[in-house]
Amino acid sequence: MKNSLLLSCCFLFILAAGPTCTARSSAQQPEIQGTPVTDYTSLLAKLRAAGVNIEPLEEVDQPFFSVKGKAIELYGDHVQIFEYPNASAADAEARLVSPSGMAVGNTRMHWLGPPRFYKKEKLIVLYIGDNEKVTKALEGVLGRHFAGR
């Protein structure tokens, strides 16, 4: 009788404590949805969390940016990601991009498709193309493009 009473009390304690323990453990795990995009790694994590298949590609070098970038493939199109040491450095270079995206500083561009420049924290992201899946994925994690069409 004592054993069954003790067992019943333990069972009730476990039921009562269970949701609290579960909530605590899930709160300790970082949530991708709430994690801000601040760098290349967090950008890829956010895109993957949104269900986007990403294929990392080669390093890229654009003469009008002071840092080398990394290219990724989204839905068959290439996207270039430039990560700066800090947001101020990225802001300074973003200011060089014309509103149309057809010039960066003194360099006039002749893109093969419509350019879109995105800026988030210390990242500048360049997508040249008009694939709606790509633009929706990028806007979903980076917001609206700051230059281009």
Notes on the protein architecture:
With 149 residues, the chain is an alpha+beta fold. The protein has helices spanning 2-28, 40-49, 87-94, 132-142; strands at 54-60, 69-74, 77-83, 103-104, 107-108, 115-120, 123-128, 147-148. The strands form two sheets. Strands 1-2-3-7-6-8 form a six-stranded antiparallel beta sheet. Strand 1 (54-60) and strand 2 (69-74) form a beta hairpin. The chain starts with a helix and ends with a strand. Mean pLDDT is 83; it is low at 1-32.
Feature tags:
149 residues; alpha+beta; 2 domains; 6-stranded antiparallel beta sheet; 4 helices; disordered N terminus
Summarize the structure in short.
Helices cover 38% and strands 26% of the residues.
Overall geometry: globular
Count of domain modules: 2
Largest sheet report? 6 strands, antiparallel
CA(first)-CA(last) distance: 77 Å
Number of helices: 4
Per-chain topology:
Elements (H helix, E strand, L loop, with lengths): L1 H27 L11 H10 L4 E7 L8 E6 L2 E7 L3 H8 L8 E2 L2 E2 L6 E6 L2 E6 L3 H11 L4 E2 L1
Antiparallel strand pairs: 1-2, 2-3, 3-7, 4-5, 6-7, 6-8
